[in-house]
Amino acid sequence: MRRFLVVLLTFVAILAAGWFALQRADIGYDRLELVYANSDSRTLSLENGLRVHYRDVGPRNAPAIVLVHGFSSSLHTWEPWVANLKRDYRVISLDLPGHGLTNCLEGERIGTGQFVETVDAVTKALGIEKFTLAGNSMGGGVAWAYALAHPSRLDALVLVDASGWPESSQEEKSDPVVFKLLSNPVARRLMKNTDMTWLVRDGLRDSFANPDLATDDMVNRYTALARAPCHRDALMALTSGGRDRVWATKDALSGIDVPTLIMHGEQDKVIPVAAARKFADAIPGAELVIYPDAGHLPQEELASETAGDLRAFLARLNAPEPDPAETAEGG
Known about the structure:
It contains 16 helices and eight strands. By secondary structure, it is an alpha/beta fold. It has one domain (about 25-315): Alpha/Beta hydrolase fold, catalytic domain (Rossmann fold), CATH 3.40.50. The protein has an eight-stranded mixed beta sheet with strand order 1-2-4-3-5-6-7-8, with helices on both faces. Helix 5 links the parallel strand 5 (about 130-135) and strand 6. The N and C termini lie far apart (about 95 Å). About 40% of the residues are buried.
């Protein structure tokens, strides 16, 4: 018995030592900005204390497109689209509170409501009256919630592998390992300040149909930005559900009356393609495009194809109305 206790205590001591060895301190915004900001980066200070990192490129008088990233991500996920669209559109991408290079407000409830308010405040501060709003994953949930809260400000809505529908028990079983761990309160507490590189790598590889697209640079960026002051608290608060989660329902979404494009990767392991079909069924007149060779991040995996589909969608919206007289003559 004594030998067993010695072995057990030794094992516990080794686990504790390993856990302490994996602890990682915060990284200051000044250090992160040296690596992850660029010449297009700007910071907007809002009245509530948020310092929002955003990028605003393209012709000032062109139609505006605002891009909103997903959970634990940043505006960097949209860079392939930005490069494609900025010739003809004013493109604004931003880091949501507690993500990227945007701070979070201690003690303030983080979630969809705060994110919707942030998008609204940033666009108004930039003098943008109307715009197309595109969101991926959690950012898609923010986008459709914004469309319900501020319909008069949108020209169009674009949902890219958007979140919002409650998961079925079968879908929960197929979630990537990282999300299963983060859904457990004990695991969250133990993981909060530890080195998450291996989990981030696993989660990103699951996010692509081609796992090799999850490069070392991408993994390092996600891991480093999550270590910004208060970001780990924010991410843990979001994974715990919180009081501010907004679920999609067919009745609520039927109130969206702006032109809507829904994009979804058929091989998405995070949000199943069935969710896209639910959005298309619920939102009146919505267009649906499914990409057989894409996962959860088609804006990165199929950047040219998805940006081209967005361009075609917007071109159809902006096409001139046919002249009734010419139509009659042609008939």
